[in-house]
Amino acid sequence: MSKTLDAFLKENLEDLKGKGLYNVIDPLESPNGPMIKINGRELINLSSNNYLGLATDNRLKEAANTAIQTYGVGAGAVRTINGTLDIHVKLEEKLAEFKHTEAAIAYQSGFNCNMAAISAVMDKNDAILSDELNHASIIDGCRLSKAKIIRVNHSDMEDLRAKAKEAKESGLYNKIMVITDGVFSMDGDIAKLPEIVEIAEEFDLITYVDDAHGSGVLGDGAGTVKHFGLSDKIDFQIGTLSKAIGVVGGYVAGKQELIDWLKVRSRPFLFSTSLTPADVAASIKAIEILMESTELNKQLWENGNYLKAGLEKIGFDIGESETPITPCIIGDEVKTQEFSKRLNEEGVYAKSIVFPTVPKGTGRVRNMPSAAHTKEMLDKAIAIYEKVGKEMGII
Ligand code: PMP
């Protein structure tokens, strides 16, 4: 190894470990369902994005198995050479139907969807108004585009309006985009889309909503944009196939011309091999299930509300979440990490989230209940929270 690389790695790894910021990864010895197994121990899983339990659903497994038998395990090429299978086209048609848009385009992940879509449309002569709590993939996608990034205070509509006005009136930019998460995953709050759309109309902003955590959750499952009845007002509806849908992949849904442009200009579509047949078939099945019935969605909300009520009743600060995402705010970083570790020892897997992912002093253990949890699992988790919370003087 090069001496400079060696020194760089040693110094920085030590630094991260010293600050408690080095991620320790616990491999699962089971599917990522409501219960998981780590190091031979069964734990109640409150950390996955498998909101509806579809990642382990038999109907999806069956669809994936059939696709593997029909098409094999790999798509064999990028989409524009000959890596577009008929089921890729079917997936995109389903996504457009699901999102109430003219068309959709699928990518290999939600992360590279943001890298792809922003930079296909925005360039150095443009500006992007970006909520300060937007996801890392949005931030990276904005940087890649080379557009001027204007950070907007979180969900602060006065700040957004002032900055949109200033950008518009400066005459410096060809295009201006406003970009936001639909649901913010650290606190579970929902973007103020009606106000954002109003400001966008006033200043002719391109609207971009990454609904990774809203799809399958809000709007009877169709997402945050549908929840507010704004399907014809948002230019880019981004989603991921990896959370409520339970598989892997990302997508943009929007007007036909936008999707046509992304198909010729977005680089991961042009230069990275397409989603595997199993991913595609399982995703189609998941979307069909979501469009046919709201049963899983209802169960998710019931479980989310049950967990929230239980934790609040025993004295935890669960923040201001408007979705099933349930943060348990502890505050101090070291105490938060210790709390998560003790929960784990008692049988609950709930990850701590601390600075720099969330502001200093707002460390929390974040709970992601799913439709697949039973009341017994949630009751047990609440009892463990109570035990550890009292023991550590948090409640
Ligand atoms: N956008 C948001 C808002 C997300 O929360 C995530 C996942 N953490 C992504 C994009 C990336 O999605 P994926 O995991 O499908 O790459």
From TrEMBL:
<dbReference type="InterPro" id="IPR010962">
    <property type="entry name" value="AONS_Archaea/Firmicutes"/>
</dbReference>
<dbReference type="GO" id="GO:0008890">
    <property type="term" value="F:glycine C-acetyltransferase activity"/>
</dbReference>
<dbReference type="InterPro" id="IPR001917">
    <property type="entry name" value="Aminotrans_II_pyridoxalP_BS"/>
</dbReference>
<dbReference type="InterPro" id="IPR015424">
    <property type="entry name" value="PyrdxlP-dep_Trfase"/>
</dbReference>
<keyword id="KW-0663">Pyridoxal phosphate</keyword>
<dbReference type="InterPro" id="IPR050087">
    <property type="entry name" value="AON_synthase_class-II"/>
</dbReference>
<protein>
    <submittedName>
        <fullName>Glycine C-acetyltransferase</fullName>
        <ecNumber>2.3.1.29</ecNumber>
    </submittedName>
</protein>
<dbReference type="InterPro" id="IPR015422">
    <property type="entry name" value="PyrdxlP-dep_Trfase_small"/>
</dbReference>
<keyword id="KW-0808">Transferase</keyword>
<dbReference type="Pfam" id="PF00155">
    <property type="entry name" value="Aminotran_1_2"/>
</dbReference>
<dbReference type="InterPro" id="IPR015421">
    <property type="entry name" value="PyrdxlP-dep_Trfase_major"/>
</dbReference>
<comment type="similarity">
    <text>Belongs to the class-II pyridoxal-phosphate-dependent aminotransferase family.</text>
</comment>
<comment type="subunit">
    <text>Homodimer.</text>
</comment>
<dbReference type="InterPro" id="IPR004839">
    <property type="entry name" value="Aminotransferase_I/II_large"/>
</dbReference>
<feature type="domain" description="Aminotransferase class I/classII large">
    <location>
        <begin position="42"/>
        <end position="382"/>
    </location>
</feature>
<keyword id="KW-0012">Acyltransferase</keyword>
<dbReference type="GO" id="GO:0030170">
    <property type="term" value="F:pyridoxal phosphate binding"/>
</dbReference>
